[in-house]
Amino acid sequence: MHNESISTIKRSSKIAPLVIDWRRHFHRYPELSFKEEKTSKYILDALESMGIYDIQTGIAGHGIVATISSGNGPIIGLRADMDALPIMENTGASFASKHNGIMHACGHDAHMAMLLGAAKLLVEDFKNGKLKGTVKLIFQPAEEDSDEHGLTGAPYFLKSGIINDLDAAIALHVCPWRYAGELQVNKGPSMANIDNFSLAIKGVGGHGGYPHQSYDPIWMSSFVLQGLYGLISRKINPLDVGTLSVGEIKGGTTSNVIPETVQIKGTLRSYTDQIRSQLIKELEAIAKLVEPLGGQYQLDIEHGEPALQNHPEITDLFISTAKSIYPSMEIYEQPFGMGGEDFGHITKEIPGAMFFLGCGKENDETRHLHNSDFMINEEALPIGVTLLTECTHRMLNGSDYFGGEQS
């Protein structure tokens, strides 16, 4: 292990109480997507207290990009998301949410705190002449939800042009199914394309005692549902990654009236553009089953996040950095799952990667993301600060990724 790496571990440990305080503040005062006004102000004050004043605000509502630079050299982006979820907290923590029905149940409080911790160390390193290039600290709102235009926070950062000069972008996400001190990484597609669908099956309503006088959309929907649930097993190559789930069915208001319409809503998940297109095409074909039965349909697709594409060389840099700093660290190489992550918008345009940082506690039942009892093991926080800081050092100071020698 290099002396610099040992130093970073010690420095991260030294500021760990501050990082924990930041994280607990964010957890105590969560804000929903596009409403992160006070969260943004708190981050701005923290950055300015570190001596960072090259700061752009108001991106995607309350987003921040703070820049630390020594002039010429690579430009690296470090990203943390800011928003919370509409969930009633049930953790019993002393710093539990004070905002009724809103909770940091996906670890964004930890993400922001770790990025602030890395910022504090990186500012010192730039001042001491240890880094050459530029770091952009990206605090992004609205990862969890979209606005009236169907957009989450990341597309607005790309549209603004503020991060389009990045040579690489890095993000981390806490991971409750791994213990603190463990890491999960993956090259290539790592989280899913998200497409939500709404299918209206339209018939002719009537009296339940005279079904022959109607065109029953509930009856038609029974054939459609069979088609939907058979789509993955019979239309998609088993070696490809794709799935479909129905989450909502609505039709009818009383027992003796056949309704005019049945509404089916669900989600499509995939890892490649080819499977994404195929799922939508097959969904359209299944919807047409209602036509020979006397019905009509309307199918609407809402396109969400693209698949998270982890750059192989940046992922290798995560692995080599982690192994160098923490030789005994368990590193698991496998995809992160079929959830969505709007960092995928950024990795589609800019070489980038996300790593999952273990935050579980041994002998403690796993608390899943997006659950009311979700809580991290705060021992993960200084580890995240160290990894973000060291990865940045290696990317700026002649890493293999930029064609130099690994430091």
From TrEMBL:
Q: Which PANTHER family match?
A: METALLOPEPTIDASE, PUTATIVE (AFU_ORTHOLOGUE AFUA_6G09600)-RELATED (PTHR11014:SF63), PEPTIDASE M20 FAMILY MEMBER (PTHR11014)
Family annotation (InterPro entries): Amidohydrolase, Bact_exopeptidase_dim_dom, Peptidase_M20, Peptidase_M20_dimer
Peptidase M20 dimerisation domain: residues covered: 194-288
Q: The organism sits in which domain of life?
A: Bacteria
Q: What is this protein called?
A: M20 family metallopeptidase
Q: Which Pfam families match?
A: M20_dimer (PF07687), Peptidase_M20 (PF01546)
